[in-house]
Structures are given as structure tokens and as C-alpha cells.
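User: Can you write out an input/output pair for a complex, sequences first and structure second?

Assistant: Here is one pair. Inputs:
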Amino acid sequence: MLATARGLSIGAFGAAAGVNVETIRFYQRKGLLPEPGRAYGTIRRYGEADVARVRFIKSAQRLGFSLEEIGGLLTLEDGRHCAEARTLAEQKLDDVRAKLDDLRRMESVLAELVERCDASRGTVTCPLIAALHAH
Amino acid sequence: MLATARGLSIGAFGAAAGVNVETIRFYQRKGLLPEPGRAYGTIRRYGEADVARVRFIKSAQRLGFSLEEIGGLLTLEDGRHCAEARTLAEQKLDDVRAKLDDLRRMESVLAELVERCDASRGTVTCPLIAALHAH
DNA sequence: CTTGACTCCGTACTTCAGTACGGACTGAAG
DNA sequence: CTTCAGTCCGTACTGAAGTACGGAGTCAAG
């Protein structure tokens, strides 16, 4: 496993972050993860910050952000170009709020559906469809 | 455009639902949309229910559901197999609530980020990463 | 009854997000 | 010093979700 005080090997990193080694290399190619320096030889070492970064990517993906958008979100990290960062954050905030609205509608409909599952037998119109339809 | 009282042509349907004609045919192949009967000739006609269905698919996709999952959600529509439907709905409800949690965290972080954009200049750690990291 | 827009259907291509593969290399353990 | 799991890198493949294309058929209007 090659896990020493110098940091995690790519294998250990992948395991820690819950992704495949190839995925890490893929993210590096995409610029989502920095290509780490190789202070101690030709094998790359990774740290906790890298693990957090991958977990962030995965979380953001589950929320429907594309890798490209996530790349944008991650540039907010550096603190520089504050004006652009703010704009990006505002756009994303709008996205997130729209998603929240949809999900809340979805939640209430699903909850209702579960609740009165037995009561409604021959209902023809789908309450789920109706819920998202009412936009 | 061939839009008559008999219903919408596939082109009009696509326009009404905000998707490409090819997408409609694709959904039909996938079984997400019923292949309509051809009561009046060889050209298929569509109605409002179809439009609602496509809009539902698009909404659900924005929430991160795959077409396969959406297929599952759409089977809840028919009201039959109530036990299975209930189980499916419950699983989806869990999914939706997990997504809501993530998004709410994301929202607060983004909102905060926008707010104190000017204040935090040289902050090194990314509050966004921290927010989703804290799971 | 011809024309031209639209439809039908199959097949092929594209993008996104990985996953797999294979040959060369590295480096800790025996 | 050898060995062999693990790494490196490029290239190729996969699956999901469409999108594009081309030839044949249809149908409302002129």
C-alpha cells in the first residue's frame, strides 16, 4: 500500500476517497485535482486535502453538477478573483435553490403517495406528474 | 405543423414539451413514453398528458434521477401493484431527502460565501469543501 | 395530382464520465 | 539483488443520454 508519513500513494488515496485509481488520474487530466509534486521519488503522494476535494466532487455530482461546473466551484477555493467567484457562487446559488424547490415538491408528493398508498386504488392521474407539472 | 383537434404531431409535441423530436423517439424506444396509436392514418398524435410526462422526465432528470429510475417512478402512475409502488416511492423518498440535505448545506455555504466575499481575502481553506466534507 | 414540409425508421455519431488494458518503471521486502 | 505489488502513462473501450442523417412514406395546400 506504500502509505507512509510522506503521504498516501494513489492506491491508498483512491481507497480513502472511495474512488477508483483511474478516476483520480482522470480528474487530474481534467484539472480537477492538482498533479502533485514528487518530492520523494517518482511516485506521487496525496494528503487529506486531496481526499476532501474528491469527496466534494462526488457530493456535488450527486447534486447534479457536471464536472465542468464543479471545476468552476473549485476555483472559488483559491480566494482570488473575488468578483468572478462571487458571480459564479450567485449563479450556483440560484441553481441550487431551483433544485431545492423541485426536490421539496417531489418530497411532499412522494411522502403523500406512500401515506395514502392503500387508499388510492384506481386513481388515473399521477400525483407525481402533477406535482412537477405545476411549475 | 399538422396541429389539429386530433392531437399534436410529433413536431408540435416536441416544441410543446421543449425537446427535440429525436428525443421523443428515443424515449419511446426506452419505454418512457407510450407509442401512441395511429387512429387517423400513419402519423402519430399526442396529447397534453404526453407533454406533462416529458416535462416530468426533464424535471426528474434535473434532480439527478437517471432515465431508468424515472421509468420506475413513472410506473407508480398506474396505481396497480401498490406494494411495489410503495416500496419504490419510499426508496426514492430517501434519495430525495438525502439530496435535500446536501443541497441545503450547499445553499447555506454558497449564500454565506456570496455574503462575505469581500471580507475573506486570503482564506486558504474552501468553505464549500468543508461544508460537504462534514458528512 | 403534384409539391414540399413533415413523419417514420434504422443506423451511426457525439458527449460526458468514467473503466480497462498493457507495457515500462519503481521501490519496499525477502 | 531479485521479485512483484503497485505506479505511470497513453490509448482504447464502455454506458448513458441523446443528436444527426438519409431514404422512404404521408398529407394538406395549391
